[in-house]
What we know:
single chain; 8-stranded parallel β-barrel; 9 strands
Amino acid sequence: MNTRFAKTLACLMLALFAHEPASAGRSDRAALLERRLQGPDGSVMIVAHRGCWKGTSENSLDAIESCIAFGIDMVELDVRRTRDGVLVLMHDATVDRMTDGTGQVENLDWAYLQTLRLRDGAGRGSPLTDRRIPTFAEALAAARGRILINVDAKTDLNDTILPFIDKYGDRRQVLFKQYDAADRLRVTSPWLKTVRFQPIIDEDQLSPAGKRLLDSFSGFTPVGYEIDIAHPEAIAGFAPLFRERCARFWVNSLNGTEALHDRDALREPSAVWGRMIDDGVDTIQTDEPLALKAFVAHREPKTYVCSRQSQ
């Protein structure tokens, strides 16, 4: 991060608290979040990949609370199932990277996972903390009415998940995503028609048969489309497809993505995040949510607005 941007970010992060409507009630915040999740509302929606984990631990309750404190719109959380059927937050198939334990989540009982301590940040040998692996129920309860959740399911979910979400959270504030083709989803996951849903599509699938592919998902009424971008220059050409469908255009800038990187955005935010927004992207998933929020607050971009009937 260059010195100029670092100073700007520090000033903007202090200003963010002043701009957040501290007097707004929980129900007001919930209504705002639900409106943003229904489709384009003229704002850039910021999604924190695995929560705001820098300074906390990824997929932790603290990572969720940190995002809430900074007014981030959505946290992306990874959900797995233990051997005895408890839904927990963990990205990897094993607990090795993020805890002082070992083994595959699906082969471990919740009683064992409760004894483990999460590592700081993204793990990989970082110091152990007093944080514990959260259950999905705890995450839903913490987020309800305060921040949106994007579920990245690492285990098969069926319609039994909906009563679970209704009990601990609010399905209107939860976004599901899937890579599968529409024909397969109609067979395996028809319940997706009753929730906020977005397909994940590779750029090469979208061109040249974009309209036909997007039309195949019409029965699910997607609130957005996540596109894995390989060539940033293609973004502007895709944006009209999503505007026609009153849907958000989601692109990742995560470190490790093929074409767009947070590390480059920290050096030259206008060249990465600014270009994405100018070309029609209105939802960005990032490992640098606070820096992105500061950039958006400074730039105050106006994006596409449309309305749809509430599902």
